[in-house]
Design brief:
Layout (H helix, E strand, L loop, with lengths): L2 H17 L3 E6 L4 H12 L13 H5 L10 E8 L13 E2 L8 H19 L6 E4 L7 H7 L4 E2 L5 E2 L7 E8 L19 H5 L5 E3 L2 E2 L5 H7 L15 E3 L3 H4 L26 H5 L3 H7 L9 H12 L1
Parallel strand pairs: 3-10
Antiparallel strand pairs: 1-2, 2-7, 4-7, 5-6, 8-9
Bound molecules: cobalamin.
C-alpha cells in the first residue's frame, strides 16, 4: 500500500471514529457470486414471506456496480446499539433492542453524509457516491463481511469479534479506489447451535438460513396481516421485533453498551410495566417512539401484536 493511500485510510478511519461509528472496513466493488446463489435459493424457497421488495432489483442487489455509477469501493461502517439498560419488568411485552431509540436509518445516514462530505473536502474533490443503510438493494451484511468487519453467524447476523452482533450496518459506495487489504474473517460459530435451538418458532431452518414466514421479527414488524394462529403462545412476549437468536449467542454476552446518544430510549421506556403497555394510547405511543423505528408499525400495528401476546 503506498503512503498516500495509507494516509487516506487513516484520515477516513479517524473521522469515522470521531462520528461515533464502532468500526469501519473497505472492500472492492464486485459481483457477489456466492451471496447471489444464497439469495436466489432463499427467494426460491419463499423465505422472503411478504417482503416482495426482496425480489426486486436482483442484479443491483448482488452487484453495486449496477446500482451506483462508476462504483469502485464499498466503505462499510458498524454502529453498536447494545442498550445501557434493558426493559425492567420481566412480564412486560418486549421491544427489540435496535428499536429502543431514534430510528437507525436517520442516525447512520446523517453520519454517513458527514463522512462523505469529509472525504470530498479533504481527499477526493471529485468524489461521487451514495450512502446506504437498509435503504436500497444492497446486501449490507455481505459487504460488512467482505470489508473484514466480521462473519455471518448461523443466526444469519453479522458478528463482530469484539462488538458481537448488536451492530447496525451502513455503507458508502464511492467512485474512488482505496486500499482494501482487509481479509474477511473466518466464521467462528464452530459447533455452537444455541441460536437455532433457541428460536421458539423454528425460523432458523438451517445454519445461515432464515425463513421469514416463521420469524417473530418479520411477523411483528413487516407482516401487515393477522399473525397466524399456529404461532399463538410461541412469541415469548416479543411485541416488536425479536432478539432471541442474538441473546442466545455467546459472542453477545460481553457486549459493551453503545455510546450513541440517539439510541437512548425515552426516559420512561425501560420502566414501563406490563399494565402500562396494555394501556398505551396513541398520544403516549407517539411520545414514546418519537422518530423511533417502532413508529413504522404505527400504534395499530403494535396493538395487534400486544393483542396476540394475550
Ligand atoms: C430482509 C431483512 C430482514 C428480514 C429477513 C432476515 C434475513 N435473515 O434475511 C427480517 C424482517 C426477518 C429481518 C429481521 C431482522 N433484522 Co433485518 N434486514 C433485512 C434486510 C433488508 C435484507 C437481508 C437480506 O438480504 N436477506 C436475504 C438473505 C438471503 O440474506 P441473509 O439471511 O443475510 O443470508 C446471507 C447469509 O446468511 C448467507 N447465506 C444464506 N444462505 C446460506 C447458506 C449457506 C450454506 C451459507 C454458508 C451461507 C448462506 O448469504 C446470504 C447473503 O449474503 C437487511 C438490510 C439490507 N439491505 O441488507 C436488514 C438487516 C439484515 N436486518 C438487521 C436487523 C438488526 C434485524 C433484526 C436483528 C431486527 C430485530 N431485532 O427484530 C432481525 C434479525 C433476524 C435474523 N436472524 O436475521 C440488520 C442486521 C445487522 C447485523 N448485525 O447483521 C440489517 C443488516 C440492517 C442494517 N443495515 O443494519 N430482517
Amino acid at each position: 500500500m503506498n503512503l498516500i493511500a495509507q494516509q487516506h485510510l487513516h484520515q477516513i478511519k479517524d473521522k469515522a471514529t470521531e462520528l461515533g461509528f464502532s468500526d469501519i472496513g473497505f472492500a472492492k466493488v464486485e459481483h457477489l457470486k456466492e451471496d447471489e446463489e444464497h439469495l436466489q435459493k432463499w427467494l426460491d424457497n419463499n423465505y422472503q414471506a411478504g417482503m416482495g421488495y426482496m425480489e426486486n432489483h436482483f442484479e443491483k442487489r448482488v452487484n453495486p456496480a449496477k446500482l451506483v455509477e462508476d462504483a469502485k469501493t464499498v466503505i462499510s461502517v458498524l454502529l453498536n446499539y447494545t442498550p445501557k439498560e434493558l426493559q425492567k419488568d420481566p412480564g412486560a411485552p418486549k421491544i427489540a433492542r435496535y428499536a429502543y431509540g431514534k430510528d437507525y436509518h436517520f442516525v447512520i445516514k446523517d453520519k454517513l453524509k458527514i463522512l462523505f462530505d469529509f472525504i470530498k473536502e479533504n481527499i477526493f474533490s471529485d468524489l461521487e457516491g451514495r450512502q446506504f443503510t437498509d435503504s436500497a438493494p444492497v446486501l449490507d451484511r455481505a459487504w460488512a463481511v467482505k470489508s473484514g468487519l466480521g462473519w455471518i453467524g448461523k443466526n444469519t447476523n453479522l458478528i463482530h469479534k469484539k462488538l458481537g452482533s448488536f451492530v447496525l450496518i451502513g455503507e458508502l459506495i464511492i467512485n474512488k479506489e482505496l486500499p482494501t487489504n482487509e481479509t474477511p474473517l473466518k466464521e467462528a460459530c464452530g459447533g455452537c447451535t444455541r441460536c437455532i435451538d433457541a428460536c421458539p418458532t423454528g425460523a432458523l431452518v438451517a445454519s445461515y438460513q432464515l425463513d421469514a414466514n416463521k420469524c417473530i421479527s418479520y411477523l411483528t414488524i413487516e407482516n401487515r396481516d393477522e399473525i397466524p394462529e399456529v404461532f399463538k403462545g410461541k412469541f415469548n412476549n416479543w411485541a416488536f421485533g425479536c432478539d432471541i437468536c442474538q441473546e442466545a449467542c455467546p459472542w453477545n454476552w460481553k457486549a459493551r453498551p453503545t455510546k450513541e446518544k440517539e439510541f437512548e430510549p425515552h426516559p420512561d421506556f425501560t420502566s414501563m410495566s406490563k399494565d402500562n403497555w396494555y394501556a398505551l394510547d396513541e398520544e403516549r405511543f407517539r411520545k414514546l417512539f418519537k422518530k423511533g423505528a417502532v413508529k413504522r408499525a404505527k400504534h395499530i400495528g403494535l396493538l395487534r401484536n400486544l393483542e396476540f401476546l394475550k
